[in-house]
Amino acid sequence: MTLRHARRIGGATAAALAAGLLAAPGAAAVPGVAVTDPKALPAPGFASTGVRTDACDDATAPGWLEVANPVLTVSATSPQVRFKVWDDSTPEHDKIVDTAVDVTGGTARLATSGLADGHSYSWQTWPAYDPGSGKPAPTCHFRVDLTHPGLSVSSTDFPESGSGTTPGKYAGENGVFTLKGLDAAPAGGQASGVACYRYVLNGSLGVGWDCASGHTVKAGADGTAQLTLKPKDWGTNVLTVQAMDDAGNVGQPSTHTFYAPWDPRPKPAVPGDVDGDAVPDILLPDAQGNLQVISAAAEDTTPASTIPAALAPLHAGWQDYLVLHRGWADIHGPGDDLVVRPKDNGGVLYVYSNWSKGDFSDRLPTLAWKPSDCLDPAGGSIACPEDYAADWAAADQLVAVGGRTGTGPSLPTLLSVEHGKLYAFIDTGRDYGYAQPVATTGDWNGYELIAPGADASGNLTVWARERATGTLHAYPVTREPNGLLDFSALADPSANVVATGFTTAAYPTLDSAGDGDGDGKPDLWAVTPDRHLVTFSGWSTPKDLGVLR
Fold it and tell me: Among 333, 335, 334, 336, which residue's Cα sits nearest to residue 325?
């Protein structure tokens, strides 16, 4: 029997078959005549996963459509194709279409109309030489949802303004917002259910989004989601949220206006912290080129904030830049400045001053020039080595170690590998005034520098991964009475092995944000080949935070 998918046959249909009312005619199939590749346009699917399916088998769940007039298409070698469509949501599984359509260019198309909200449909096609002749296409299925979802927003951390409830959190702290969707099913029908939400804090929602877009959160099985956000500034804030159901219908935006009180508690300055919450941050670009600020103490990859792609040099996104941070240059701290260099080894270095807790939209970046003089161990000026480059293009690696003195504002000291040699660039008051040769005899080309910041005693350390073996080295860096850093422990890059297993195959990206978990140990983070973000306590106890956006 070719008429119906086995799972669609109910009692009424079985009775009709027994009476011969729906039996396929017995005409012999015409050899070589067939219809293939049945498709509905637009393609049925699931907004929650991005999966598209015509469900032309017994096992696949039918996808959803947000339109009442899909076009059904099939490839055919016959001059005509017969289309049949059943409404599986009616008690008798009513056949609502039974018609022949001419084949043009090897394709037959049937434009449907008036399909009911919340109903499920099956459809099948045959070559139309005569009724039932030729090899049929498999039975396919889809569901229709035409209702736009609604939603409500609530929070005990930052309740709705005017509710009379006192906020439980201060500005600069994470607050939890509960998003509760409503996707009502029509009488006798089924709703696809809320799939995800898109949100923006103190801004406007864009158009043309899906559940994989930035600033989205997936809904649970009950249609609710927990959204964690950090209002940076005290005062009135507006959270705007929009729901999408599994069929792709988008509801009207809903706003949640709330007050974030000023936090009277002083925040300590923590190198590695970009958004001013006294916790180091991980900075990584998302798929749209925005720079994500992810707390090193986070439980997942949800960014606390993002720095828009348009703020990158040349306004084309942060994916093409190396972004360093570990200190600040002026009285605007706490909150790291960003030191930014093009990944194509460009000769320029940009500095973004952090005056607004991670909001870099109010000031243009400045250029940090490479110093022309080198520094001897006693603090005097000496001539740089002959192969020392005049700009930053020769820096095969560049990492930010920390402030020069550790007691006041300064640009972070930078470590650079040039021609296998190691240099430190020292701030002399809002600019890099000296280059300090650190190791000019050892070969650092096979090592990847990592700067985890200070340890529990305040002493700086430098780490390095040996790329060929995945071996991790740690080099103590102490401060001299004149405020300069003593890098003598880095003379031999192969010394001071502390861990193994950090191979480039397992962790193509390996870096440190500083002391992310507050245990006094500087912490590693890594990105795996499948873009999972993994954090470590020191260099042990890996924790997978999930897939990056």
Answer: 336
314 — phi, psi (to 5°)? 70, 0
CA–CA distance, 303 with 548 (Å, rounded to integer): 9
Give the amino acid at 85. Answer: V
SS3 letters across 4-30: CCHHHCCHHHHHHHHCCCCCCCCCCCC
Strand order in the sheet with 291-295: 281-285, 291-295, 305-307
Burial of 542 (C-beta count, 10 Å sphere; 0-12/13-18/19+)? middle
Query: Which residue type sits at 197?
Result: Y
The predicted-structure confidence for 232-272, as pLDDT tens digits, reads as follows 889 999 999 999 999 999 999 999 999 999 988 877 778 78
Q: What is the pLDDT of residues 84-128, one digit of tens each?
A: 999 999 988 899 999 999 999 999 999 999 999 999 999 999 988
Alpha-carbon span 232 to 248, nearest angstrom: 32
Taking alpha carbons only, the member of 314, 305, 359 closest to residue 332 is 359
CB 121 within 8 A of CB 143: yes
Positions of E strands within 116-250: 120-127, 140-144, 150-154, 175-182, 194-201, 216-218, 224-229, 235-245
pTM equals: 0.63
- C-alpha 308: how far from its chain's center? 14
Q: Are 203 and 255 in contact (CB under 8 A)?
A: no
Residue 395: CB partners within 8 Å, gap ≥ 6? 341, 345, 389, 416, 417, 418
Using one digit for the tens of pLDDT, what is the confidence trace for 467-482? 999 999 999 888 777 6
